[in-house]
Amino acid sequence: MWKLKIAEGGGSPWLRTVNGHVGRQFWEFDPTEVPLGSTDHEIITEIDKARENFHNNRFHKKHSSDLLMRIQFSKENPSRVVLPQVKVNDTEDITEDQVTTTLRRAISFHSTLQAHDGHWPGDYGGPMFLMPGLVITLSIVGALNAVLSKAHKYEMCRYIYNHQARPVLGVFEWSGNNPLPPEMYLLPYILPVHPGYCLVMLYKGEDAGNHQKDQSRVFIEQEFYLLLTADNCCGTSKLEQRELEVLDDCPGNLDFWYRHISKGAWPFSTADHGWPISDCTAEGLKNSDGGFATYELTRSYRWLELLNPAETFGDIVIDYPYVECTSAAMQALSSFKKLYPGHRHQEIEGCIERAAMFIEKIQAPDGSWYGSWAVCFTYGAWFGIKGLVAAGKNYHNCSGIRKACDFLLSRQRASGGWGESYLSCQNKLACFLQLPYKNLMNQLISLLLGPGFFNFALTFLGLCRTSLPWANVSTWFQD
C-alpha cells in the first residue's frame, strides 16, 4: 500500500538536506501483504472506495481532495474531541458558546491534518504538465526502469486513464497547436532567437562547464516530485518556520550570476528548495516603484514578454510587482515594527509608505485589484485592503479602502455569498459565476475583511493562464 512519508530521506545516499528534511514529503509503496482486520487493511478498504467514487465522478469533480493523505492521517492522528455541529437559523442570534464550539471543531479537524514535523501537507495539482517531461527524460537516458518501480508506473497509468477525455483518441485540432515554426531556421544565424544558436552553445559547453555546488539547493530524487507527491508546504508551525529559513546566501558573486540575496528569507517550499520569495522576504525584493515582486527585482522591460515561448504561463519572462507580495511584505514589516520599534525605523516607515502608494496607484477604478495568484479580483481586494491597513489607513481616511468595500458589496450575491470564476484571471476582467454557484474561497476572503470535506473549485491561478486546485486553500480560509 502507499504511505505518505514526512521529513525522511528515504535512505538515498545522493540526497542532502540543510534542515533535517523538515517539510519534505513523498509517497512510498510497501508491497507487503496487509493482514485482514488490521488498521492498514481498513485504510486500504477506504482507499478502494475513494478510488471507485473518484472514477465514477471524475468528469464532474476532477480533484482527488487529498483523500489518500486524509485517510492515512485520520488513522495516524485521530481527533480526540468530538463536538456537535452548530446550526444557526437566519433569524437566530449567534451566541458565544456556538462560536467557541465551531472554532474548537475547526481546530480539532485541522490538527488531524498536521504532519508530525509541524507543517500541513497539501496537493499541488499540476502533474499533467510535469509527469510527461519526467517520464520522457527518464526514457531517453535509459533510466526508466531504474528509477520507477512497477507500482509507480501502475499509478501513473491509473492517473492518465482517470483523466482521459471522452474522445479517447486524443486528437486535437491543428488550429489549437502553436509549435515553433520551422521557418525560424531561415532567419539570419547571428540573431539570438535562431534555433540553431542554442543547440551550438549546448554542444560546445557540454563537457566544459564548471559545476559549482550550491549548498542551498540540494540534489533531489524522484520521490520528491513524482506521482502522489504533495510538493508545497501550505502551512507551518512556528517551530518549523525556523527550520525552513534560508541561513546562507548562494555561493559566488551574486551580481555576476544575476542572483539575489537569500539569507534570512523563507522559500516557497522547504529550506532545501532554497528559492526565497517576497511574501516572506520583505525588504530585500522592494522595487523602485515601491512594490514587491516574487523571486527577484523587476530587472527589465515588459516588452520582453513578446519572446515568452510558454503557453502554460503568462508574464514569466521578467518578474513584476504584485499587490499580494507587496501587501504581505507590508504586513510583515508592520508586525516587526511593533516588536522592534527602534530597529531601522525610518527605513521601514519609508518602505511601508511607498508600498502603500504603489497599492493605491494600481487599484482599478471600480475599487478592485487584480490578484495574480488566485481567483482573482476578490482575492486581490483582500490583499489590497490588508496592505493599506498595515500602513495605518482605515475606511474613514482612505478612499482606496472605501472603493474596495464598495466593490465587494457590489459583487455580493442575494444569498449572501461571493462567487468569482477563474476566467477573471485569464481575461483580466471581473467574471463572476452564475447562480447558484459560489466560490468558497471568495466568500471567506470577503468575511476575513470584516470542517469537513470542501468544495475544491479552481481557487488558485498562477501567472494568468494556469488554473490549479490547491486543497489547503479551502482548509486555510475556513479555519
Topology, element by element:
Blueprint: E1 2-6, E2 25-29, H1 39-56, H2 67-76, H3 96-112, E3 121-122, H4 131-140, H5 144-147, H6 150-162, H7 195-204, E4 232-233, H8 238-244, H9 278-281, H10 323-339, H11 345-361, H12 377-390, H13 399-410, H14 423-427, H15 440-448, E5 460-462, E6 466-468, H16 471-478
Antiparallel strand pairs: 1-2, 3-4, 5-6
Please report which band the strand proportion falls in: under 5%, 5-15%, 15-25%, 25-35%, 35-45% or over 45%. Answer: under 5%
Q: Return the structural class.
A: mainly alpha
Order of helices and strands: EEHHHEHHHHEHHHHHHHHEEH
The main pleated sheet reads as:
2 strands, antiparallel
Strand order of the largest sheet: 1-2
Distance between the termini: 31 Å
Helix proportion: 25-40%
CATH topology of the largest domain: Glycosyltransferase
User: What general form does the structure show?
Assistant: globular
Low-confidence stretches: 211-240, 450-460
- Number of helical runs? 16
What is the count of β-strands?
Answer: 6
Rounded to an integer, what's the Rg over CA atoms? 24 Å
Mean pLDDT: 74
The CATH class name of the largest domain reads Mainly Alpha
What's the CATH architecture name of the largest domain?
Alpha/alpha barrel
Total domain units? 2
